[in-house]
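Pilot study result, target chain (465 residues):
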Amino acid sequence: MYVKQAACMCLRNYIKDAMMNNQLGLEQIRNYLLRIFELTATLDLDLQFGELLSHVINSLVTSASGQPAPLIGSALATVAPLLKDALTSGRTIVSLQSFLTCLQQVLAAMLDFPVLADEAVAILDRTNHVIAGKVAELENLLQTGRALPEPRAEEEEEESPARTLAGKLGVIYTWIRIVSSVVEKASKMGANNYFPYSGLLAELFSKILRLPSWTSTAMIQKSGFIWGTGKSSLDLKANNVKRYVLKCTRRILEQLAVSRSNPAAGASPFLGLCVGVSEMLADAIIEACVGKYDLLENLPIEDSQNNVLMEIMSLFSTMLGFPEFRRFFDSLKEKLVVGVVFAILRSGSETLDTFANDPEEVLNVALDLCGKQASDVAKSEAARLLSALCANLEGCLSFVSAFSLRIVGVACRGENLVASMSEFAQFPFIVRGSAESAVETALMAISVIHQQILRRPDILYRAHY
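Predicted structure:
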């Protein structure tokens, strides 16, 4: 492996220098690209080697100036049809994953050249068809519900349901990273160049989001949207796949929002996708925040489950900008505000420890929540969701203001929070939290939406507790 790694690094450095000095011609770039992709089919390939090959590809398709170079565009144009033909479902898991890792660099480079957009679409479509087979295999593996024990230590190297599942999730994860890079590039094309995402891609997203969790005994958890099997490698792969699918869906919706006048955008299947999965996503986040309330307090920032929760909230914030979804969200207003947003905004013991040891950091977080909400943490996503709910749902701003001030009033009068607000007794935020924590969260919520309140004199001057 060390010899391969050294060879890849030398080749990458050579190509990088040659490209900077304009020493490689069209035919040389083309041959290097084809040869590297041929290596992904070798029998002794491993995933780390595939990653190294992708770095070499990156050097080949990146110009010295950082701007799209006609020579690279010409090379990609000649290679693209061959790559599409080479992408088959008959490859081994490792070979396919390595091929896709290298393909990510090529597709991202192709989108720098408008004349190659159709070819990029064709390759992505071919990739989607190959992955559709892997998703179907994964669905079958989960639906059979193989109640098999985990392999013993001496069986770890043998085939097992868990290892098979991990391999298929790995391929799908590599694919969704390709889609993510395409979506990110496409988002910079502008409203007049809407990227034609296929109905198959939306269908794959729907199937992936509906994949149920797999437990340690391989029994299906029907409501297990967020994976928490206790097997860190499986949970990480499955939750990261769903996180990327949610992120791509959100970015596509953001493109739709600025391209609604474009006929191609108006017919997008991703609006239908969101309609189909919205109830499932709402159930997942409400279950996590209400049913697993105690776990939210100190959930690690980099935890894969936490990342999925954040992406659901981020997607919901974007969906709220579309009139098509507002009736749905209006029916869940109370659950999302009290059960989700307030549950996440509250300060846990970890926040209190940070306040004691680093009060400046707590102040920075509070300023972010009440301002740009730019931090990549769950509290910022909850604040963005609260702002979106209040901005787009009729009566939500009044509800949040009245609810928050009522909490403050109950606490100031020394009354019991649960007894005074019994109609919200189904929410752990009211039942399990302390009065001090509830008041702090209520005041934080008012601070988050204070700009919206200032534009509503009817709320501003009639507020009372």
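One observation from the pilot: The longest helix spans residues 117-143. A full batch analysis is planned for the follow-on phase.
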